[in-house]
C-alpha cells in the first residue's frame, strides 16, 4: 500500500457489520424490511446477508420473522471483555516492570493448583528460570507462599500432602509447621529459596474469586534495595485489585 492511500475495504463485510449493529439496537428484534430501510441496503442484499449471519450464529431468526443477536455475538462479547481485562492488567504490570526494572508475575490458586497466568519481562529484566514447576514449588516461591497464605490451614495442609516440600536450594524452607502456620501477610519474600541468585517479592491481589498475587523477581544482589520495591508493588497490586473489582461489578450487572 502506498503512503497516504486508502486501505482496501470489503463492502460486504461492512454491510454485515452494519446489520449487526442495527439488530443490536433493537432488543425486541427487528425485521428484514426495517433493517433494509435503516441501513439503506437493497432488500435482496439484506436477506442474503441475514441468511449468512444466521447460518454462522451471529443472528437468530425468531418465529415472527424478526432477527435478534445470536449466541456467537455473546461469545465474542465475553471474549472481548476478558481480553480488555487482560490488557488493563498487563498495562499495570508493564508500568511496574519499567518502574522497578524487574520481571513481573500474576498468579492465582485455581482448583488446588498454583497457576502463573501472566508474565511481563524483557531482555533487560528476564523472568526466573522455571527449572521446577511452580505447582510443585509453592513452598519455595514468593508467588506460591503468598497464594497459600490466603488459604485456610486445612487447605494448606492438603496442598503439602499433595506436594511435599523439598529442598531446592540450601535456603529452601521445608518445615511443614512453619509453612502451614504461615499467617497472611501484605508482602511475601523468597530469598534464593527457589533459585540461587534470585529474590522475589509478592503481594496479594484482593477482590478476586480465588487467591491471586502480583510478584516481582530480581537478582539477589539488589536485595539491599528491596525497600524501594515495596510501595510500588503494593500500589500495583491494589490497582489490579480495582481492575478486577470493577470487572466483577460489571459482570454482575450483566
Quick structural gist:
This protein is α+β, with helices and mostly antiparallel strands. The chain contains eight helices and seven strands.
What does this molecule look like?
The chain is α+β, with helices and mostly antiparallel strands. α2 (32-39) crosses α3 (43-55) and α4 (71-100) runs antiparallel to α8 (227-253). The protein is built from 8 helices and 7 strands, in the order αααββαββαααβββα. Residues 72-246 form the IclR-ED domain. One of its GO terms (biological process) is negative regulation of DNA-templated transcription. One of its GO terms (molecular function) is DNA-binding transcription factor activity. It holds the Pfam family HTH_IclR.
Layout of SSEs?
Elements: H1 11-24, H2 32-39, H3 43-55, E1 59-61, E2 67-69, H4 71-100, E3 103-110, E4 113-120, H5 142-149, H6 153-162, H7 176-180, E5 188-191, E6 198-205, E7 212-219, H8 227-253
Antiparallel strand pairs: 1-2, 3-4, 3-7, 5-6, 6-7
What portion of residues belong to β-strands? 15-25%
Low-confidence stretches: 249-253
Number of extended strands: 7
| Principal-axes shape call | elongated
N- to C-terminal separation?
42 Å
Strand order of the largest sheet: 4-3-7-6-5
Tell me which oligomeric state these chains represent.
single chain
Number of domains: 2
Q: What fold name goes in the CATH topology slot of the largest domain? A: Beta-Lactamase
Overall SS class: alpha+beta
Rounded radius of gyration (Å): 25 Å
CATH superfamily of the largest domain: GAF domain
InterPro entries: GAF-like_dom_sf (IPR029016), HTH_MetabolicPath_Reg (IPR050707), Tscrpt_reg_IclR_C (IPR014757), Tscrpt_reg_IclR_N (IPR005471), WH-like_DNA-bd_sf (IPR036388), WH_DNA-bd_sf (IPR036390)
Pfam family, one: HTH_IclR
GO biological process, one term: negative regulation of DNA-templated transcription
Protein name: IclR family transcriptional regulator
Amino acid at each position: 500500500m502506498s503512503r497516504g492511500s486508502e486501505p482496501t475495504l470489503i463492502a460486504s463485510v461492512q454491510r454485515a457489520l452494519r446489520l449487526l449493529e442495527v439488530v443490536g439496537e433493537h432488543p425486541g428484534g427487528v425485521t428484514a424490511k426495517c433493517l433494509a430501510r435503516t441501513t439503506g441496503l437493497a432488500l435482496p442484499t439484506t436477506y442474503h446477508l441475514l441468511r449468512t449471519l444466521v447460518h454462522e450464529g451471529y443472528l437468530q431468526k425468531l418465529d415472527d420473522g424478526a432477527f435478534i443477536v445470536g449466541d456467537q455475538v455473546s461469545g465474542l462479547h465475553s471474549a472481548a471483555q476478558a481480553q480488555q481485562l487482560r490488557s488493563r492488567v498487563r498495562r499495570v504490570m508493564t508500568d511496574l516492570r519499567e518502574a522497578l526494572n524487574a520481571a513481573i508475575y500474576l498468579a492465582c490458586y485455581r482448583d488446588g493448583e498454583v497457576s502463573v497466568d501472566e508474565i511481563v519481562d524483557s531482555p533487560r529484566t528476564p523472568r526466573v528460570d522455571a527449572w521446577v514447576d511452580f505447582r510443585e514449588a509453592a513452598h519455595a516461591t514468593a508467588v506460591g507462599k503468598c497464594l497459600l497464605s490466603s488459604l485456610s490451614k486445612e487447605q494448606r495442609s492438603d496442598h503439602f500432602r499433595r506436594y511435599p516440600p523439598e529442598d531446592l536450594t540450601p535456603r529452601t524452607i521445608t518445615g511443614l509447621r512453619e509453612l502451614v502456620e504461615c499467617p497472611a501477610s501484605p508482602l511475601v519474600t523468597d530469598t534464593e529459596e527457589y533459585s540461587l541468585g534470585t529474590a522475589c517479592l509478592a503481594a496479594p491481589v484482593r477482590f478476586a474469586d480465588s487467591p491471586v498475587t502480583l510478584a516481582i523477581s530480581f537478582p539477589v544482589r539488589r536485595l539491599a534495595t528491596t525497600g524501594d520495591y515495596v510501595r510500588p508493588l503494593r500500589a500495583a497490586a491494589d490497582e489490579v485489585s480495582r481492575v478486577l473489582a470493577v470487572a466483577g461489578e460489571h459482570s454482575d450487572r450483566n
